[in-house]
Design a protein that fits this description.
Distance between the termini: 52 Å
Keywords: Signal
CATH topology of the largest domain: Jelly Rolls
GO molecular function, one term: hydrolase activity, hydrolyzing O-glycosyl compounds
Oligomer: single chain
Number of helices: 1
Protein name: Secretion system C-terminal sorting domain-containing protein
Number of strands: 23
Helix content: under 10%
Largest sheet: 9 strands, antiparallel
InterPro entries: ConA-like_dom_sf, Secre_tail
């Protein structure tokens, strides 16, 4: 059911984050500014008929927080030509990606939301996504099969989620509003999904996207088991972070909100000096013999 995908994606590889979970809600605190999202935080567009100004970070239309991205149509429809708003994502063995989407109206544009690709060596292999037709029908869809999900409602927020197991089960699972609605084999051409896309054909209506969550399910499965074993305090802090762990600490890494590593310690210890760091939000990743746990800290 997939429309023709034109070769367009950037060839630069994504610098894989060490975080087990990444949230993109287009907030100022995440480093986003109001205005075109194109060029912010590696968001890109491939299009022949939609200007960058049609992809706006806006306020007051969010499903989560304050900001969201609103995509507007110029009504310059080109047959069999889709417009792709996309971003590189980490190549996890077991990947979970979710987002909130709201589509403007029926009998207008056609959409592929939360569409995932494997882009490598100049080729694009489609893993799957949610297909919203102009008729109101919508599907959990990929190149191997699809599942009808009923009728979609314009102006309604939908939470869409896809889980991909590249290693063990080699399948793709689709969730609609937190309910599993379809499970499909994964195409053998998809080595690792690494591109997240939101697509439409610019036929008179647009959409809003917010609250994107990208997870490494392998890391989460380890972290979730050990959440009660590692504690950090005080938080917020202005000078030191104390770490209390039931297990031996192997390493501690501190990242800023852009995902850059700003501090690392590789010996057993229980106190981190953060007095020389700028004020703001950070993620601290603590590795023990039983896995890795990531926590948010605030430097005052």
């Amino acid at each position: 059911m997939k429309k023709t995908l034109f070769s367009f994606l950037a060839t630069a590889l994504f610098s894989v984050s060490s975080f087990s979970q990444q949230k993109i809600s287009f907030e100022t605190s995440e480093g986003y500014n109001l205005g075109s999202v194109i060029g912010q935080k590696e968001w890109t567009v491939q299009t022949e008929n939609v200007p960058n100004s049609s992809f706006q970070v806006v306020t007051g239309k969010a499903s989560d927080g304050t900001n969201a991205v609103e995509v507007t149509s110029t009504n310059a429809y080109l047959e069999n030509k889709m417009t792709y708003l996309f971003k590189k994502i980490p190549e996890y063995n077991r990947l979970s990606v979710s987002a909130d989407v709201k589509l403007e109206k029926l009998d207008s544009s056609e959409y592929y939301m939360l569409s995932l690709y494997d882009h490598r060596n100049g080729e694009n292999s489609w893993a799957g996504g949610f297909n919203f037709l102009i008729s109101g029908n919508f599907y959990a869809d990929n190149n191997l099969n699809f599942q009808a999900l009923g009728k979609w409602i314009p102006g309604k927020w939908y939470n869409l989620k896809i889980e991909i197991d590249h290693v063990t089960e080699k399948n793709i699972k689709y969730y609609l509003d937190n309910q599993l609605v379809h499970t499909s084999p994964l195409s053998s051409k998809v080595v690792r999904a690494n591109d997240l896309n939101f697509e439409f054909d610019n036929d008179g209506s647009g959409f809003i996207v917010d609250n994107i969550i990208i997870k490494d399910m392998d890391q989460l499965s380890v972290s979730d088991i050990n959440k009660t074993q590692v504690n950090i305090f005080p938080n917020p802090t202005s000078d030191f972070i104390n770490i209390k762990s039931d297990e031996k600490i192997k390493s501690v890494k501190l990242y800023n909100v852009s995902g850059s590593l700003v501090k690392t310690e590789n010996n057993e210890f229980s106190r981190i000096n953060v007095s020389n760091l700028p004020k703001g939000n950070y993620l601290i990743s603590i590795e023990t013999d039983f896995g890795i746990e990531t926590k948010k800290i605030i430097k005052e």
